[in-house]
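A reminder from the course coordinator: this example appears on the midterm review sheet, so study it carefully.

Given structure:
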């Protein structure tokens, strides 16, 4: 069940809100139970047969953390076994088919199994590993309540696409959070902005990207670049839109979920881009892979090996296909280069050139990410850099520009921190005593959110439903 579906907006969400807020504030356990039951129902909506995988992961990590806590006998073995089972479960569901397919390509004759991929397994498995590891390290105590661990892993606002949570940050809110009208209103505004990103921008831009990547022999230089740019914007608005909705819903229920994006397309290097894009995943790999491997406090060859390992795993985490492996290695090479080769020279360039450098590299990276395989990677990149089978320009490019021109124009300022700039300017005017600025600051976001909600509902009623891109991970 996607947040941008009519079932969620006018069925599931009103139901959970009514059941949750009918209970008095003092009934904290009751409200947590409502969230837990609705979260499990939310997950089961996509297929009840996949719910046992989520529940098994919850029980496994709840028990494993209790056995791996400081002071327990054989805690190292308990931690190692539980960690191995987490990795095995993720590997079985996500990579078995990929492994068998590649073995067959090498000469084996194996049947490729049809294994249904549990939605969000990469996200809830990483949350589980983080919880287990933090308990083992003694950073947080082991949680004795299976219900709380399950709610942490299955919390429906962020279950399918993050942001990736840490139990040490989530647990205090289970008992101490306070839901307020002000927070609920702010959360609703954030949700509506995210819905607008997804429905009004991402889905439209996806039409351009889909057309370009499926063009084949009709592909031109202009269409290849238009499709790559459209996908670059589509993925941002799709994923950050989901994150906005998740954070907004969390705030309605009194939870403060971590930010996952910080306007990544204003970056001036690949390194900065990954400090701004999917931040909770970057922090996860930093804290649970890169630093344990030695991080940057080791020799240069070892640093290179650590970066290579992290980015190989990052690519595979996103998908079981060679183009994801290539995408991970691509960023490994870029980050190595910026750290050890051309980083200082890059810093001496004008800001505009550094920004252009980063945008081109990121766009090329998304072509690797979006392509259906290595062959399409070659086709798209060749076309973008001059070797297009259809020439330089085509009527198809003109069609997409006319059909989706306003979405492309709206996407540019929407991907920039315009909202932050306006809020800063209005706050400064308010501090100087401008009453109109205070009114604008208070009302404008709410009015715009209402407009975006209405426009999104109209668009949903008149178009085919499209799932979120990161659901496949």
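Designed residues:
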């Amino acid at each position: 069940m996607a947040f941008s579906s009519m079932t969620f907006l006018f069925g599931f969400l009103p139901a959970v809100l009514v059941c949750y807020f009918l209970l008095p504030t003092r009934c904290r356990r009751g409200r947590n139970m409502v969230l837990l039951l609705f979260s499990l129902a939310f997950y089961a909506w996509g297929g009840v047969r996949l719910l046992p995988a989520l529940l098994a992961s919850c029980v496994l990590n709840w028990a494993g953390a209790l056995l791996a806590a400081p002071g327990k006998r054989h805690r190292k073995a308990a931690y190692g076994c539980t960690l191995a089972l987490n990795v095995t479960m993720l590997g079985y569901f996500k990579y078995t088919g990929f492994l068998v397919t590649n073995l067959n390509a090498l000469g084996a004759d194996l049947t490729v199994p049809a294994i249904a991929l549990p939605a969000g397994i990469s996200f809830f498995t990483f949350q589980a590993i983080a919880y287990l590891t933090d308990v083992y390290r003694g950073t947080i105590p082991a949680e004795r309540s299976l219900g709380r661990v399950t709610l942490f892993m299955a919390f429906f606002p962020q279950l399918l696409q993050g942001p990736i949570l840490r139990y040490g940050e989530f647990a205090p809110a289970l008992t101490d959070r306070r839901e307020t009208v002000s927070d609920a209103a702010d959360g609703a505004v954030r949700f509506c902005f995210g819905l607008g990103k997804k429905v009004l921008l991402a889905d439209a831009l996806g039409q351009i990207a889909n057309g370009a990547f499926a063009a084949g022999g009709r592909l031109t230089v202009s269409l290849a670049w238009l499709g790559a740019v459209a996908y670059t914007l589509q993925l941002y608005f799709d994923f950050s839109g989901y994150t906005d909705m998740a954070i907004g819903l969390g705030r309605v229920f009194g939870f403060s979920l971590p930010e996952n994006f910080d306007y990544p397309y204003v970056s001036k290097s690949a390194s900065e881009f990954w400090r701004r894009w999917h931040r909770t995943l970057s922090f996860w790999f930093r804290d649970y892979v890169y630093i344990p491997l030695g991080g940057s406090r080791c020799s240069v060859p070892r640093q290179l090996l650590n970066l290579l390992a992290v980015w190989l795993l990052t690519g595979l985490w996103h998908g079981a296909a060679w183009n994801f492996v290539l995408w991970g290695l691509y960023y490994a090479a870029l980050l190595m280069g910026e750290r050890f080769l051309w980083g200082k020279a890059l810093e001496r360039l004008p800001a505009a050139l550094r920004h252009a450098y980063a945008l081109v590299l990121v766009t090329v990276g998304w072509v690797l990410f979006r392509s259906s395989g290595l062959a399409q990677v070659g086709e798209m990149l060749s076309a973008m850099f001059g070797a297009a089978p259809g020439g330089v320009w085509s009527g198809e490019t003109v069609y997409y520009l006319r059909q989706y021109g306003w979405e492309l124009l709206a996407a540019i300022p929407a991907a920039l921190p315009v909202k932050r700039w306006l809020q800063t300017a209005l706050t400064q005017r308010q501090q100087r005593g401008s009453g109109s600025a205070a009114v604008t600051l208070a009302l404008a976001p709410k009015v715009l959110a209402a407009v975006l909600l209405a426009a999104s509902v109209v668009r949903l009623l008149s178009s085919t439903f499209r799932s979120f891109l990161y659901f496949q991970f």
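The chain has 20 helices and no strands. The chain has a mean pLDDT of 93.
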